[in-house]
Amino acid sequence: MKRVSIIAGGIVQGVCFRYYAQRKAEELGLTGWVRNIPDGRIEAVIEGRDQAVDRMVQWFRHGPPGAQVDECTVSEQSYRGEYNDFRVKAYWQ
Fold first, then answer.
1. Which domains, from first to last, does the chain contain?
2. C-alpha to C-alpha distance for 69 and 76, rounded to whole angstroms
């Protein structure tokens, strides 16, 4: 099992990035969250099977239709198993 933190920048807000990310995470059986951050980037914490997390990281590098990801920073963390589902957090929460 694996846990990563992701920060993605570019044209990532105002293109439904968070909701597409939630759908993709659910499709892959992942848990965690995604949110907008004040500087215009997207932040996420993702947990799950190694291969599924790797697929989600690749998805983040391109994003949904309408997005243009110019930067994607991924930090691996210790798996905690603290989430039951994948949620879109309220703006900057």
1. 2-79 (3.30.70.100)
2. 20
